[in-house]
Structures are given as structure tokens and as C-alpha cells.
Amino acid sequence: xxxxxxxxxxxxxxxxxxxxxxxxxxxxxxxxxxxxxxxxxxxxxxxxxxxxxxxxxxxxxxxxxxxxxxxxxxxxxxxxxxxxxxxxxxxxxxxxxxxxxxxxxxxxxxxxxxxxxxxxxxxxxxxxxxxxxxxxxxxxxxxxxxxxxxxxxxxxxxxxxxxxxxxxxxxxxxxxxxxxxxxxxxxxxxxxxxxxxxxxxxxxxxxxxxxxxxxxxxxxxxxxxxxxxxxxxxxxxxxxxxxxxxxxxxxxxxxxxxxxxxxxxxxxxxxxxxxxxxxxxxxxxxxxxxxxxxxxxxxxxxxxxxxxxxxxxxxxxxxxxxxxxxxxxxxxxxxxxxxxx
Length: 341
Ligand code: AMP
Ligand code: MG
Prior knowledge:
Blueprint: E1 6-7, E2 20-24, E3 27-34, E4 37-44, H1 48-65, H2 73-78, E5 82-84, H3 87-102, H4 112-118, H5 129-135, E6 145-147, E7 151-153, H6 167-181, E8 187-191, E9 194-198, E10 207-212, E11 220-226, E12 229-235, E13 240-243, E14 246-249, E15 264-271, H7 274-287, H8 289-298, E16 304-309, E17 313-316, E18 325-326, E19 339-340
Parallel strand pairs: 1-10, 17-19
Antiparallel strand pairs: 2-3, 3-4, 4-8, 5-7, 6-7, 8-9, 9-12, 10-11, 11-18, 12-15, 13-14, 15-16, 16-17
The structure holds adenosine monophosphate and magnesium ion.
């Protein structure tokens, strides 16, 4: 019997806190709601306290890094010109600012006010060009100053940071690392479009990560056999609303303040570094396939990726050539076959 590929989960805003803890044979799993998404942890031989510790790791990060929780480290900074933050928030923000430079602004963690204005999963507001134009100049992390005592000074008084494009991948990596430190060899955490795995599923050599078909999200376009990695997916199909026949999604082009007009429908980034996998998935989506491929070839970052393009083609970076297993039955939006090239 072959292991079934894990389906990368759609970001589903749930109204209830999902909690479940089960232990079948020696494989334990735990599901809960955090970071605005459904989270599930499965670990071979984990105790209830191991699973609770992994869950605590995710919720503690949410408490620190959330843009919308008033008491978070990030919110304190967002409501002042400068603030001293925790070591971890300081390190993550400084990494995010560097990544903004390295991606030529495609990933920009200073985009918080634009994200809040559109509120894609909440009030679903269609802003006017004037409203966007008024927020755009200060919606950047460029110019953030990091000083001693973990002091972060914002580039503009009203800049609002949002770590939504990198915190989940980071949290997934940290939670799996915590389980490994507790002696667990085989584990998986799935956190709204981000999956971290270590070891292998019981009785099998490797994990198989299924990549959702963005055109038919209850099917997959194929899978990648892998282990000790984090996979992060960014896709226009994840969170969006439609107004007058136009789809407005949650991944913004920091240069315009509008949902990114990309030739990528979804991109899955594989890296051992969860922060990088998550941040890059967003950045690659915004920059489009040609620039994404150029960034891969530059070799600055260690990652691989699977792209589903808006023209109905699927392509992978060199490191996944011969590794990614394409599902020949995968369909494009018009019902024709997706083409793997
Ligand atoms: P992801 O699903 O990882 O691509 O992250 C999308 C989330 O990151 C959005 O819901 C926003 O909170 C935030 N975001 C959107 N566009 C960007 C961007 N260009 N750079 C950084 N963060 C962004
Ligand atoms: Mg991301």
C-alpha cells in the first residue's frame, strides 16, 4: 500500500476553536485553531504533553507576532513610532526587512495597513485608488532601524507590520523542531497552507506532500516525496472575494497596493527553513514566474518550488525535476488537462 499524499490545507477561517486529541496505536494527533487557521499535528509515539507543547509553541508565536491581537509584541510596535520587542520578534523583523530588499520589495512586511484596508476575509472592502494612494508611501518596512535593547524604529509613524506571509511557515518549523527535541522522530504539522515534516509516516520511507490544484482545490496536481522540510503554498484561490466578476485576493503587490496581478496561480516552496519557505512563496507569487525563476538561478536562497501558472502549465525548479510526481489527470479551469513542462 502506498501512503496517501497529504493534501495541503486550504486556509479555512473557522468560527470555532477546533480541539481534538486522539491516540490510535502509537500515532497521536491533535487539531486546533491558531494563527487564523486550522492546525493539525501528527506525531509517532507522542504523548499528550508533547502535542500540547507543540500547540503551545504555535499559540505563543501567535501571541507575539499577530497584527490583530492588541497585546502582541507586533501590535505594540505598530501603535507607536518605536518599541522594544522580544528577541524573537526582533530577529524575525530584521530578517523580514532583509528579505524585502532581497526580493526587491515583492515581500514587504510593512504592508499591514494595505492588508487591513482590504480586509479580504473580513469586511471585504473595495478601496478607492485615493485610499490606497494615501496609505502606500508608508506601507513599507524599508528604512526600519534596529538598535540595541531590541529597539525597532519604524520608517514612518503610521507604518504597520504584518508577518502573515512568513509566521506560519516559521511556526510550523519550530513546532516540529520542538517535537524532535522531545525525541520524536516522525512528525507532521499542517498550518494553513504550510506543512512541516520530519522522518517518515509509520511503515513508509518518506512523506508525500500533495500539491493542491488551485483550479479544483479538492484535487491535487501531483506530489513531492520529501522529509525534513517545510512546504509553503501561496495561491490566489486561498482567500479572496469577487465583486462585479473580478477576483480580489489576499496577496498584494506592495508597489500598487492591489492584489498582485501574477502569471502564477499558486506556488509551493520547499525549504528546510520555514520562515524562508513561507516568505518566498508570497514573494514569488508577487514577482511572477520569470523573476521567480531568475531568483532561483541566482542561488541566494536554498529552496525549490512547484508553480501552477495561469496559462494552465505546471513547472518545477531544477531540484524537483524527476522528484515531483505529476498527476496526469489534473485539470485546468476550463476542464482541459494541465500541462507539465
Ligand atoms: P501567504 O498566504 O503566505 O502568501 O501570505 C499572505 C498574507 O501575507 C496576507 O494575508 C497578508 O497578511 C500578508 N501579505 C500579503 N501580501 C504581502 C506581501 N506582498 N508581502 C508581505 N506580506 C504580504
Ligand atoms: Mg507566505
